[in-house]
Amino acid sequence: MPLVIAHRGASSDFPENSREAVTEAYRLGTDMIEVDIRHTRDGKLVLCHDSHLHRLFGDKSKLASIDSEQFRRMRTFGTGTTVTLDELLQMHETPMQIILDVKEYGLEKRIDELIRKHDCVDRVIVSSFYSAVVRWMKQLNPSVRTALIMDKLAAAPMAAGFSRMYFHFLKAIRSDYLHVHFSRSRIRTIRKLGRLGIPTAFWTLDDPKDILASLPANPYGIMSNSPRTAMKALGRLRAHAA
Q: pLDDT for 38-54, tens place per residue?
């Protein structure tokens, strides 16, 4: 049975990457959370998907142009409490596994410093669309688990197979996992990659039909904006959270 991974926290119920979304994912009994990591002007790592602040905060600035104190006073979609990575790793709501989707180059050293500071290497996976981030993270700390993220374009050849090609590439960049955009056409290749030793998680599945359709691939995880929906589909929603 795959793990249920709350994509940007329980982001269908609360603003993405917010303290409230993380807390709700914990309350539901989600196995893992996935959050996005960027930096502010003063070099602090924060949970934020976009480099521009307009969609999330209605502000015309770029995230990198404001400091962390300004960011902490902002509210995602007007209500969500913003969170730094340092705060996240200290929250009592996060004993669960955490996937860090690193959105920028050059954050690897600071991420490693925080992982070491909070002694949480056993519950963190560092992921990125950028293979260089994955490789550099592993060089900094070989104990850190890593995952390459693939979108529709990067994963398109999977419809024709090429499992060995993907396997050798992932091994070359020292990626422990693959996080791939879900498509039924990729199921056979993902299943083969699993047999070769590359566990895969699918993103982002909010429809119970898609969640159940993904199971023949034997994914290690299902990323969903609605972990409640995913857990119901898998018959795993805790009674107290129903």
A: 999 999 999 999 999 99
pLDDT of 20 strictly over 60: yes
Distances from the Cα of 84 to the Cα of 124, 141, 186, angstroms: 15, 21, 35
Instruction: Name the residue range of residue 33's domain.
Output: 3-37+94-241
CA distance 223 to 4: 6
Beta strands in the chain (DSSP E): 3-7, 32-39, 45-47, 75-76, 80-81, 97-102, 124-128, 145-150, 177-181, 200-203, 221-224
Report yes or no: 38 and 62 within 8 Å, Cβ to Cβ: no
For the stretch 161-185, pLDDT in tens is: 889 999 999 999 999 999 999 999 9
Tell me the CATH number at 158.
3.20.20.190
Map residue 48 onto helix, strand or coil.
coil
Residues with Cβ within 8 Å of residue 195, at least 6 apart in sequence: none
CA dihedral 44, 50, 51, 53 (to 10 degrees): -90
Residue 86 lies in a domain: no
